[in-house]
Amino acid sequence: MSKNLLLNLNGGSNGALKKWIDRLKSEPRISWYPSSGDDFKDILYLHQKYNDWLPKNGTAGVKPPDIYIHTDCSLGSDSRLFDTITVHDDWGTRITVNSIEKLPAREVTKRFESYRNCPENIAVGTVVFLELNVKSQFLGEYVVPVIYAFVENSAFLEDIVLPNNGKLSHIVRARDGHTEGANSVPKKWLTDIQYVVGCECIVKNTSFSRFDILRRDN
After folding, report:
1. Which of 35, 123, 134, 176 gives the lowest tally of CB atoms within 10 Å of its CB?
2. Parts of the chain with a pLDDT under 50
3. Which residues contact residue 207 at a Cβ distance below 8 angstroms, ignoring those fewer than 6 apart?
4. Dihedral (C-alpha) 198, 210, 216, 146: value to the nearest 10 degrees?
5. Concatenated DSSP letters of 109-170
């Protein structure tokens, strides 16, 4: 189940992620953002307070995630992800890295030719656990756990999620397909696996075109 998936990603480490897992009282709710790049707006959009204010795309009544998983293999040579502690700073909301734990690297199948020569700045197979601090004029201040795996989306699903019977309460389809020339149009396979992984809510790319909460007067 979901806890098994997290334990698999933890890979026997005894750091911050293991401590987070040990505190769980029930199966965790996991959101997956494939091809997330340097975008962390999902941890704002799926916050309960935002969802209560402006539910979209089936998020109404859906309990928010406990932890977020981001995957990407092609951030591009101009990416500055994790070069600084600030990963988002715009319109009254700032997200910074409280801590980062390097987890055991993953060897997964590289299914696409374009991913076999990922940019040199990306350590393919690297997995990290992040504790991100959010300071928002509307949402307040809170800490969010995020696992970032530098692997192909389909490989993550087929080699890690499915063998561990992982359950994903949310799937974010904001950017999948962008580097394959699809102009950020979500690929059908993400919809096809919705029921396999027990997904309750798919957040579509149109939801991320305008992040209303960041402009709201409070």
Report:
1. 123
2. 113-115, 119-121, 177-186, 209-218
3. 45, 56, 57, 174
4. 40
5. ----GGGTT--TTS-TT-EEEEEEEEEETTTEEEEEEEEEE-S-HHHHIIIIIGGGT---SE
Tokens of 165: 């019977």
Note the pLDDT of residue 120. 47
Query: What is the CA 79 to chain-centroid distance, rounded?
Result: 17
Who's near 21: CB < 8 A, 6+ residues apart? 3, 6, 7, 10, 28
Locate the domains of the chain by residue range: 2-11+27-215
Nearest to 208 by CA among 75, 36, 65: 36
Tell me, what amino acid is at 158? E
Q: What is the pLDDT of residues 175-200, one digit of tens each?
A: 654 444 333 444 567 777 888 999 99
